[in-house]
Amino acid sequence: MSQAVAHGHDDHSHLPAGWKRWLFTTNHKDIGTLYLSFALIMFFIGGAMAMIIRLELLEPGVQYVDPTFFNSMTTMHALVMIFGVVMPGTVGFANWLIPMMIGSPDMALPRMNNWSFWILPFAFTLLLGSLFLPGGGPAGGWTMYPPLMLQTGFALPFVIFAVHFLGASSIMGSINIIATIFNMRAPGMTFMRLPLFVWTWLITSFLLIATIPVLAGAVTMLLTDKYFGTSFFNAAGGGDPVLFQHVFWFFGHPEVYILILPSFGIVSQILPTFSRKPLFGYESMVYATASIAFLSFFVWAHHMFTVGMPLAGELFFMYATMSIAVPTGVKVFNWVATMWRGSMTFETPMLWAISFVVLFTIGGFSGLMLGITPADFQYHDTYFVVAHFHYVLVTGAVFGMIGGVYYWLPKWTGHMYDETLGKIHFWVSVISVNLLFFPQHFLGLAGMPRRIPDYAVQFTEWNQISSIGGFVFGASQLIFLYLIIRCIRGGAKATDQVWEGAHGLEWTLPSPPPYHSFTTPPQVTDAVAHS
Amino acid sequence: MSAPHGGYYLPDPSHWPILGSIGLFSIFLGSATWLNGASAGGLIIGFGIAVFLFMLFGWFGTVIRESVTGTYNHQVDVSFRWGMFWFIVSEVMFFGGFFGALFYSRILSVQWLGGAGDGFATHQFLWPDFVPDWPMTVMPDPSKWTVYREVIPAIGVPLLNTIILVSSSFTVTFGHWALKKGNRRAQSWWLFVTLALGFTFVGIQATEYVHAYHELGLTLHSGIYGTTFFMLTGFHGLHVTIGATMLTVIWLRSLSGHFTPENHFGFEAVAWYWHFVDVVWLFLFTFVYWL
Ligand code: HEM
Ligand SMILES: [Cu+2]
Fold first, then answer.
1. How confident is the model at residue A15 (pLDDT cuts 50, 70, 90)?
2. Contacts of B44 in chain A (CB under 8 A)
3. Using CA atoms, how far apart are residues A487 and A346, in angstroms rounded to an integer?
4. Measuring CA to CA, which residue among A420, A376, A200, A185 is closest to residue A288?
5. Candidates A28, A77, A411, A503; catalytic one
6. Per-residue pLDDT at B115
7. How far apart are CA A225 and CA A239, in angstroms?
8. What is the pTM of this model?
9. B147: pLDDT confidence band, cut at 50, 70 and 90?
């Protein structure tokens, strides 16, 4: 059965209550909440794995865990954080915010929206369950390179099917987002008036649709090579293990932008609010995001510089990689220029956003260093790479998301969070995260390889500092959890606009907003748009 | 209701998606168990398929009921269209990955294995007899990978299949034209012809596979040639089967008069899918069989 909602209809006595509400919901806010809660739970599961890794690396030698288990922790940590935290978390933001930002009642395809979420718990049951199989979980790295990955035992098909399953969820999610943005905008909400967060998600969706199927193909090839006698990656049959790396990174590099673009969007919403100025260079932000996404399809082999490619390939991928720094630089410039001479205040969301700009840029710079082919021969597969991607992913993607939670939590729950606690969370996190990841640059430059439980004694001190930073960073996230739960349960009443400098349609709705955001479309003018 | 922004359509809570997840989960769990050698896998797969089919009937049934009772407005129709369009784009990328593997192997890695470029000695110690031709006549390691006697030439059954599939793309378009003129009889007949051509294609492809396995010795184990050949044509065949099944559904719906000249998104979605399957085949015919 279904209903057509006419103007102003907002009576939900017929909605199922309790667990059925969450299981069967077709509402963008409910589904957004599910996505965000799922991401938060996974953040702690993936975090626990990281704690195990850092514990083992506290001292040289192998003390706490068996090396295969260590490797399955690095593998699982990455898969959980990428597919379980950042991707679902950013989709949660998209669900909550896009309909409110473009002035629609809900997503374009609400039933499919439910399905894309409810795949996740099942897919992660397959993935995490594989840890308990005889022989343990997958330990070949999240990049799943053959022939190593093909030596995985019982866990292999579980991982592969989990990736297929998660891929289906991502494809449906992104189809829904594109259909919503194309088709559900309120009158007057032209493309060039879309809040930047909506733009970044639109572009992210294209990346997902273009690359997730390729990942599905890559893992399918692994599956048939292992169980059905094909020889994609076996030179004895005329195949080539390097082929996997090409197919995987054709997905993998755009994937890193899938992870970061939504956070770019979030930060581009936060900075103008607390600088009390419109976003600097809105149009150039849109074009820069689109160029980054476009270029990301032509740089994949920078992950494979040391694999033995023809010289022309090495050069092409080096220059292509470097060229991404241009639109990325445009974005960083615009963020800084947005703050320039603004009447800035430093509420918690703003602190996360500013630290995002600084720390993400550090990650971008180390990326440039890695993108120089001859230099990468030295850095590849060392802790330098680990430092790079944690700066862009933790202090980039994750910090953006945490900032976004602080920014919109009052809107979502109707309560202000505890500002003091938020600031404590921020300062402890930002100090510990640098303690955790900055020394890894030194370790990498000095030659410490990644994905190994043991190391040479001269690396001990920096590893200990890194581990201590890690434990503190991990523990400080418990403050975040506590703060969120408290904010959901109560707190000072939030106003509609919440932040003095906030602009955009979502701030015109009550806090918390009605179940169906806009049942009568608002008329959008230039004054409402461009927060 | 019909104004693009006047009244919005919002479905009630639905239990179909979660059933879909349970179905797919069981299929994956069963397959993984089966691949690991436990016979219980088959049972779990069977259960999963049953749940999944039940979900498909229920979900599509609901959508069809809503559609024919006029619950949907123009906006919903457009959302469905974007949904189907981007789904097909994702399918294109899936095939793109496998075509990429084909081109990479054929143009680059097999040549390198034979000593092209600066890897002149690549195969000399392990497999001195290897010859890098395509289709490969010698396997790098003949003890593990069977050599075929022959491959399937393009001019012959694949050409026939090309003619069948291309004509079916025309017949489905004729059906669409008939539908737009409101001629239900002609529309249903053209649909029937299309799905018959589709299933004929699948049947012919199946006999070709039997022929390849039993008479030509061309199998999945025939090195990278057999690998790319069967994986590409196999996934395509699977898509043709799905497409022809969808055509059957559309045909039955057409017989019961579900489509009007103004409102027939279901028909068009299947037609788009069918053209997509057809275009993939043209690439297959060109790069797998012909060149
Ligand atoms: C200025 C932009 C960037 C450049 C030039 C760049 C360059 C690189 C290069 C060359 C590598 C390979 C290093 C090696 O394995 O030897 C790499 C690895 C990596 N990058 Fe970046 N990167 C950039 C931005 C990003 C962003 C924005 C993200 C994610 C949000 C990211 C995530 C990663 C990850 C996860 C890896 C490691 C993958 C692995 O091997 O497991 N990068 N980057
Ligand atoms: Cu990359």
1. confident
2. none
3. 20
4. A200
5. A77
6. 85
7. 10
8. 0.95
9. confident
**Count of Cβ atoms closer than 10 Å to residue A499 Cβ:** 20
Which of B72, B106, B126 is where one domain is finished? B72
pLDDT band for B151, please (50, 70, 90 cuts). Answer: confident
Could you tell me the CATH number of the domain that includes residue A338? Answer: 1.20.210.10
Segments forming the whole domain that contains residue B169:
74-290
Per the CB < 8 A criterion, the answer to whether A488 and A391 are in contact is: no
Asked if A240 reaches chain B (Cβ–Cβ under 8 Å), the answer is yes
Rounded CA-CA distance A50/B278 in Å is 48
Name the token pair of A101. 């930002």
- Cβ atoms of B7 and A6 within 8 Å: the answer is yes
- pLDDT digit string, tens, across residues B55-93: 999 999 999 999 888 888 888 999 999 999 999 999 999
Q: Is residue A212 part of a domain?
A: yes
ipTM > 0.90 for the complex: yes
**Cα(first)–Cα(last) distance of chain B, in Å?**
54
Residue A529's pLDDT is 64
Q: Which residues line ligand 1 (CB under 6 A)?
A: A 143, 256, 259-260, 302-303, 321, 324-325, 328, 364, 367-368, 370-371, 376, 379-380, 385, 388-389, 392-393, 396-397
DSSP A104-164: -SS-SSHHHHHHHHHHHHHHHHHHHHGGGSTT-S--STTTT-TTTGGG--THHHHHHHHHH
Count: domains in chain A:
1
pLDDT at residue A2 is higher than 60:
no
Nearest CB among B18, B71, B113 relative to A235 is that of: B113
B222 vs B225: CA distance, rounded Å? 6
Per-residue exposure over B195-207, b if at least 16 CB sit within 10 Å of its own CB, e if not: bbbbbbbeeebee
Ligand 1 atom closest to A325 (CA): 1
pLDDT at B7: 65
Position A307 scores a pLDDT of 94
Statement to judge: residues B66 and B104 lie in one domain: no
Total domains in the fold of chain B: 2
